[in-house]
DNA sequence: ATAATAAACGTAAATAATACATTTATTGTT
DNA sequence: AACAATAAATGTATTATTTACGTTTATTAT
């Protein structure tokens, strides 16, 4: 959390702009966060969010996507700006403003090996290690925003595979809200929104009977939005 | 909106960080925005949000407060971060990332003269002029966020004088949501939240009977939040 | 054929949101 | 002193939404 040798400190005569990525994933009923172990000084060996300076010739959004690509191999990930962190002493080494962006990824999609090669690790959201600088604060803020957004936008779907069952969707919302939901009411509510398309397939990995798979229908969602409806789950 | 002479263009070899302020006020039943006419090149004479580069030795939040102080004379204004704007070509002159912050001010408090001296002007929110760069986009985003926030947080109160009547509060919400609300239901709802303190004074400026003045009770609001209640008006 | 299991379904009660009409306090006018 | 005018203040019935809760069903393994 702090630099422990003074010689790392340098005179702050230049403004740096960085972006840090808060990467959420959902796996086995748990909401997880991707963090990585710094391999360079300063703060080598400590846990940190994945970030980078924003280059002069790239859009801010692009910088986030680049960081993700470089660290996970994933392209075109759902990503959204969270907030800028700009306390003058937030980084003892540089005068650096960091724009945090959070990403939701389909954890089944990606290559676990690849991520581990980059020194990254998935932590359960309620068992995070101490992160450098203000990164724990960033995660806290991101989780808050995820909760809020999940209430009104269907971003939860970004965390699930394309085909998913209703019990899976419920587990995701339970993980995000960190409370249990009633299965009957949840199903009723989510189906009443008319944005789920029932498929002819079942997922039988969790029960003998099997649960029908659904996929998200963006068109209907757009209609729903235009009709002024609040997409509010749970 | 565009630079019209090429010699203004300079090589982008440095990253600048600016902050732009979206300043909302409420006056005579209308939601208003404070904009000002640029007095320096480039884009001299065009309407613009009020902004500044963030200095190396100041917090980002402080930069916003400084800008407000310099342009309106107001201190300790309610201000909240909106979003960072970071397209690589958003400013044709510099490679500049701007962190937009929006402010809510009690329009009766401040000195109209002072503001006018700074070349600023209050525009009604739905009759804005064309602003430079991506400033209209910023305003659009800020208004959206104001609408959302006003639904769950009592930030609306920041726009009113300390003492206000319920009809005034309703007019404010109508201006923010840009739709009419039912007076009986509004009153019922807002009073049921138990965050308004009725005073023994009346405001008689708009009717012979006069309307009772209220003030906002932050303590009760805190309790309300802790009890998990949604502060949802209208 | 049976046991076991998660998935799927429905209804009643409680709560919240909406729609809508009348009375009241006060002032200025006659 | 009575009256007209005006916005403020109040209540109730209807509808929609949310919550609480128990039973049946499809499938597989034994």
Characteristic key phrases:
homodimer, 234 residues, Nucleoside Triphosphate Pyrophosphohydrolase, 2 domains, seven-stranded mixed beta sheet, DNA-binding
Q: How many whole angstroms does the radius of gyration of chain A measure?
A: 20 Å
Mean pLDDT of chain A: 89
CATH class of the largest domain in chain A: Alpha Beta
In total, how many domains does the architecture of chain A comprise?
2
Name the biggest interface.
Answer: A-B, 24 and 24 residues
Order of helices and strands of chain A: EEEEHEEHEHEHHEEH
What is the level-2 CATH architecture name of the largest domain in chain A? Alpha-Beta Complex
From the spread of the alpha carbons, the general shape of chain A counts as: elongated
Oligomer: homodimer
Outline the low-pLDDT stretches of chain A.
1-8
Strand content of chain A: 25-35%
First-residue to last-residue Cα separation of chain A? 37 Å
Helix content of chain A: 25-40%
Domain Nudix hydrolase (chains A, B): 14-147
Protein name (chains A, B): Nudix hydrolase domain-containing protein
Organism (chains A, B): Christiangramia gaetbulicola
General description of the model:
With 234 residues, chain A is an alpha+beta fold. Chain A folds into two domains: 5-151, Nucleoside Triphosphate Pyrophosphohydrolase (Alpha-Beta Complex); 160-226, Winged helix-like DNA-binding domain superfamily/Winged helix DNA-binding domain (Arc Repressor Mutant, subunit A, Orthogonal Bundle). Helix content of chain A is 29%, strand content 29%. Chain A contains six helices and ten strands. Chain A has helices spanning 60-72, 112-117, 135-152, 166-177, 183-192, 218-226; strands at residues 15-27, 30-37, 47-48, 50-53, 78-85, 95-105, 120-124, 164-165, 196-203, 211-216. In chain A, the strands form two sheets. In chain A, strands 1, 2, 3, 4, 5, 6 and 7 form a seven-stranded mixed β-sheet that branches. A three-stranded antiparallel β-sheet of chain A has the order 8-10-9. In chain A, strand 1 (15-27) and strand 2 form a beta hairpin. The longest helix of chain A has 18 residues, at 135-152. Chain A starts with 14 loop residues before the first strand and ends in an 8-residue tail after the last helix. Chains A and B meet through strand 1, helix 1, strand 5 and strand 6 of A and strand 1, helix 1, strand 5 and strand 6 of B. Chain A binds a DNA duplex (30 and 30 nucleotides) through helix 5.
């Amino acid at each position: 959390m702090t630099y422990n040798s003074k010689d790392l400190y340098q005179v702050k005569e230049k403004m740096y702009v960085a972006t840090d990525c808060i990467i959420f994933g959902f796996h086995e009923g748990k909401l997880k966060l991707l963090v990585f172990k710094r391999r360079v000084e300063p703060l080598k060996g400590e846990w940190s969010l994945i970030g980078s300076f924003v280059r002069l010739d790239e859009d801010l959004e692009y910088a986030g996507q680049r960081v993700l690509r470089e660290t996970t191999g994933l392209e075109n990930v759902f990503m959204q700006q969270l907030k800028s962190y700009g306390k003058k002493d937030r980084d003892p080494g540089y005068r650096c403003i960091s724009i945090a962006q959070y990403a939701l990824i389909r954890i089944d999609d990606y290559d676990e090996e690849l991520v581990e090669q980059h020194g990254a690790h998935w932590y359960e959201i309620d068992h995070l290690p101490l992160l450098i600088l203000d990164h724990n604060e960033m995660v806290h803020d991101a989780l808050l925003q995820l909760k809020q957004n999940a209430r009104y936008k269907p971003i939860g779907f970004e965390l699930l595979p394309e085909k998913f069952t209703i019990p899976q969707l419920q587990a995701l919302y339970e993980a995000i809200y960190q409370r249990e939901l009633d299965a009957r009411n949840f199903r009723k509510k989510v189906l009443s929104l008319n944005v789920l398309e029932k498929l002819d397939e079942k997922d039988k990995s969790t029960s003998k009977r099997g649960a029908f798979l659904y996929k998200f229908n963006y068109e209907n969602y757009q209609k729903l939005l235009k009709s002024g409806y609040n997409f509010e789950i749970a």
